[in-house]
Design goal:
Layout (H helix, E strand, L loop, with lengths): L46 E5 L6 E5 L3 H4 L5 E5 L1 E3 L3 E7 L5 E14 L2 E7 L9 E4 L5 E8 L5 E7 L3 H8 L25 E4 L11 H9 L3 E7 L22 E5 L1 H12 L4 E4 L1 H10 L9 E5 L14 E5 L6 H10 L1 H13 L10 E4 L1
């Protein structure tokens, strides 16, 4: 599949439109102690800031209140991608075959044929031709066979058995760099419905759901459907360009299955709301939505970049965590609910000592 650019063209109502917006317009002050370092004991015990995107009025709830905020005939669309233990700690292999200094490799994208696009450390020591090894007895080895734009490396791996099983033994969960504490239970960086291996980071809005909560939601007459988007680390990178339109969006592979397309279209036709769990589900639907909000079954690469001025087609509601300053995710939620409404809600969340980022609290934008 091609990774061609996917830019939006529709310009809707916004206090500042398109090229008038600067990256600095999406900044906010966050005390470092509000960055959640560990998950709560109970997934659905997190707080939930409910924001009316039309009026900017908010209320404070808990995530286990979510069924009360949904209506019969609504549907939730969740990203069922599963995070792979993609962080590998090993050693460089010297020319004489002996192990040398320590190295770190982070798997990003499966290029096929046992070749992965990766981030590596130390970059200066790991150029084309360099070799690396992981685990006792060289259980997993790799050779850097090329470099790509942006400095990532292409590594061809060699191993015995099944690659994902090797990763389960040797790899670590690639939690974001702002989480400094060691994750005790790796399943807490997975959603309870994750099933399709491929992400380098969790679709974190889904971390709040329990199986019991999902059953309560179904009992209210709300259907649940799934898309797959394999989350890349570009998700966590702040926009460095002064003009947001100069930012080059990363590409991620996504899938809308036939049954999910049918669910979205049926919900639209019957007057229900399509509510996405997470920005990844939102980007997946919006990548392939028609002007009437209907979607078709599809798979491919998307690098859709959504910021204020974008006219949403398929998505009527959004459940999401609190995002990094100057990030594409903050720009997306600002496009959905209005930049002023979002930044005011973030100020309220800071005042009320909400927990931020991956293991933090959530918002429901409706």
């Amino acid at each position: 599949m091609s990774k061609g650019r996917t830019r939006w063209r529709e310009i809707g109502d916004s206090p500042r439109k398109g090229n008038d917006l600067k990256t600095k317009d999406f900044d906010f002050d966050l005390p470092p102690e509000l960055i959640a370092q560990t998950p709560l004991e109970k997934r659905d015990a997190s707080r939930l800031l409910v924001l009316d995107r039309n009026t900017g009025v908010w209320s404070h709830r808990y995530f286990y209140d979510l069924p009360d905020l949904l209506r019969p005939g609504d549907c939730l669309i969740m990203n069922d991608s599963r995070v792979i233990p993609a962080r590998l700690l090993g050693s460089r292999v010297n020319a004489d075959g002996k192990t040398g200094g320590a190295c770190e490799v982070l798997l990003l994208t499966d290029r096929g044929g046992n070749v992965w696009e990766c981030l590596v450390r130390p970059g200066k020591k790991l150029r084309t031709g360099a070799r690396v090894t992981f685990g006792e007895g060289g259980a997993l080895t790799g050779e850097i066979i090329g470099e790509v734009e942006g400095g990532n490396r292409l590594i061809k791996f060699r191993y015995a058995g099944i690659f994902l099983e090797v990763l389960e033994r040797l790899g670590k969960m690639p939690v974001p760099p702002y989480i400094k504490e060691e994750l005790q239970d790796q399943e807490r960086y997975q959603t309870v419905y994750a099933k399709v291996n491929g992400s380098a980071a969790a679709p974190t809005a889904g971390l709040h759901f329990t199986r019991e909560l999902m059953e309560q939601i179904r009992e209210r007459g709300v259907a649940i459907g799934y898309v797959t988007l394999h989350v890349g680390l570009g998700t966590f990178r702040p926009v460095k360009e002064e003009e947001i339109t100069d930012h080059e969006m990363h590409s991620e592979f996504c899938v809308i299955p036939p049954e999910t397309a049918a669910l979205v279209n049926r919900t639209k036709d019957l007057g229900g709301r399509v509510i996405c769990v997470g920005t990844t589900s939102c980007r997946t639907l919006e990548s392939w939505a028609g002007a009437d909000g209907h979607v078709e079954p599809k798979s491919g690469w998307t690098n859709i970049f959504i910021y204020p001025g974008y006219s949403f087609k398929a998505v009527d509601g959004l459940i999401t965590n609190f995002h990094l300053p100057q990030s594409t995710l903050l720009m997306l939620v600002s496009a959905f609910a209005g930049r002023e409404h979002i930044l005011a809600a973030y100020e309220e969340a800071v005042r009320e000592r909400y927990r931020f980022f991956s293991f933090g609290d959530a918002m429901f934008l409706q």
